[in-house]
Amino acid sequence: MRGNGLCAVHLWLAAVSGVVAVSARAQDPAAYFKQNCVSCHTIGGGRLVGPDLKDVTTRQSKEWLAKFIRDPQAVIASGDAYAKKILGEAGGVVMPAIPGMTDAVARSLVDLIESESALAQSQFKGVQVSDRPFLPADVEQGHALFTGHVPLKNRGPACLSCHALPEAGALGGGTLGPDLTKAYERLGGRKGLSGWLSAPATPTMQAVFKSAPIDSEEILPLVACLQEAARNNAAVAAGHGRLAFVITGTALAVAGLVLMNRIWRGRLRGIRSLLVENTRTQGDA
Ligand code: HEC
Ligand code: HEC
After folding, report:
1. 41 C-alpha vs ligand 1 centroid, how far in Å?
2. CB–CB of 28/104 below 8 Å?
């Protein structure tokens, strides 16, 4: 059952990734920004993983900004003092080079950021996530969405087909996507992760959710579920989750033994027959 699901996902990805590669080229700057930048930046909505870009053209020259957008790593590596400062403010997270970026695209993005900054309300002010505390019901709902128990509204595939269920650790769930236990913290908590999920900018996630975005109503429960996973993980690390550890450990050990048995059964038979063979030849001599 799960095997079939995964297979379908792979086929679909293969089909969809061709579309994304093309769309990175000629596209209007606003659509490009929405697709590739809003997971980490707002314009006037506060910091996510990256700084709020409102009025960034008053902080740096347009020339410099276009160069930075083209190849952030190179500018940072050149020892540029301003780049070092914004890197520090981002907690050391380096802005990735965006696939398909050209000088022309970078310049058009700088112009876009400048004109959006002049508006009272930029269309890129970001998703407004509620500040209310997460409730147990949110975590539960997020869990149901994650596992596919409750299907995603826009028919995106369940997270579990590619990501392990965070609280189950290494057991259960797909392995195409990374472990998400640290995602809440790594991607900037409630606000950062919400923004990220609303328009993921990484290759696989974008390919999957561009045409089937996670609904804004679904983001809060998913974020609540991932925060819970981060908490549980921290508790386990602190030694409060011994039982979970023992269970996971035992299950892994058993799985390991089964695997070893499979691998070695064949080999041992080979070695044994070789030994028998040798003894025979020695006996004959
Ligand atoms: C994965 C997150 C991420 C994505 C995606 C991303 N950025 Fe960034 N961006 C950052 C971070 C973090 C910084 C701060 C510098 C650093 O740490 O590298 C930054 C810095 C910047 C700056 C300089 C900001 C300042 O205050 O001077 C600009 C301009 C910028 N990004 C534009 C863009 C554009 C345009 C896109 C989309 C094509 C984009 N970024 C995509 C994370 C990201
Ligand atoms: C088709 C497989 C697939 C599905 C379905 C999927 N993901 Fe992903 N996810 C990935 C892959 C692969 C990555 C690694 C980055 C990339 O290539 O996009 C990733 C990365 C992420 C990250 C960033 C992790 C980090 O630490 O940087 C988050 C958060 C995430 N996924 C959440 C979700 C959620 C929530 C769902 C369900 C709504 C989901 N994913 C569904 C494959 C998938």
Report:
1. 7
2. no
Q: Is the pLDDT at 20 greater than 70, yes or no?
A: no
Tell me how many degrees the CA angle 233-237-238 measures, rounded to the nearest 5: 115
- Scan for tokens 């009272």, then name that residue: 120
Q: How far apart are CA 157 and CA 207, in angstroms?
A: 12
Radius of gyration for the alpha carbons in the chain, expressed in angstroms and rounded: 25
- Among 181, 178, 174, 179, which residue's Cα sits nearest to residue 157? 174
- Regarding the beta carbon of 57 and ligand 2, being less than 6 Å apart is answered no
29-88 pLDDT, tens digit per residue, is: 999 998 899 888 999 988 888 999 999 999 999 999 999 999 999 999 999 999 999 999
Confirm or reject: Cβ of 183 under 6 Å from ligand 2. Answer: yes
Tokens 């020339």 identify what position?
Answer: 63
Q: Is residue 265 packed enough to be buried (19+ CB in 10 Å), middle (13-18) or exposed (0-12)?
A: exposed
Ligand 2 mean position, distance from CA 266 (Å): 38
